[in-house]
Design brief:
It is built from 6 helices and 6 strands; from the N terminus they run αββαααββαββα. It is mainly α. A hairpin with a 2-residue loop joins strand 1 and strand 2. The mean pLDDT is 92. The protein binds zinc ion (2 copies). The site of one zinc ion has 8 residues, from loops.
Length: 181
């Protein structure tokens, strides 16, 4: 494991959210679409099933996508803004079957706030480790999906939308889901 488990989960979750904003279609077309995303990505806690929640989640995506394109100073500005706006207060907590990990907003905070803070906390780890190079755009021509390269040898080049090694990603997701449920 390169980073703490919650950091890796946060990075993967952020990439998955960014990639729902597709150039040729909306990956979160309606409240039911967000419900499916919530379940598929192992989110827990407060979930309102409302249009307002859906729109707040959609509004977060371009801010997170920007992190994949920005230099370190701009990433820091985005991360700090997300943490500040969310009134983030890091606390070590333990819940379900997970070991102690960081939460920076309460579990009953709005979903978009928790998504923003989880992403920001994970990105803060990347910045501190000097590892922003792990954030990549899919190498498949025409694909603009983002990815996080968590491989030991920094070999990952393709997103998980069928462009590359789908099996490896499925295995990673299964491990993540198993650890979160
Ligand atoms: Zn947790
Ligand atoms: Zn791709």
């Amino acid at each position: 494991m390169l980073f703490a488990h919650d950091t890796e989960c946060g990075l993967i979750a952020a990439a998955a959210l960014v990639n729902t904003d597709e150039p040729d279609g909306e990956g979160l077309p309606d409240v039911a679409g967000l419900d499916r995303f919530f379940v598929a990505n192992g989110w827990t806690g407060r979930h309102e099933h409302t249009e307002a929640e859906l729109h707040a989640v959609r509004r977060l995506r371009p801010r997170l996508r920007r992190i994949w394109h920005a230099d370190v100073d701009e990433v820091v500005a985005i991360v700090n803004a997300l943490l500040r706006e969310s009134h983030a207060l890091p606390q070590l907590i333990r819940h379900d079957d997970q070991p102690y990990h960081l939460h920076a907003v309460p579990r009953d905070a709005p979903l978009a706030t928790r998504m923003a803070v989880e992403a920001a906390m994970a990105m803060a780890d990347l910045v501190r480790a000097g590892e922003l190079g792990r954030l990549r755009i899919c190498a498949h021509p025409g694909c603009e999906n983002v990815l996080v390269d968590l491989s030991k040898n920094r070999s990952r080049r393709f997103c998980e939308a069928g462009c590359g090694n789908r099996a490896a990603v499925n295995a990673y997701r299964a491990r993540k889901a198993a650890s979160r449920s």
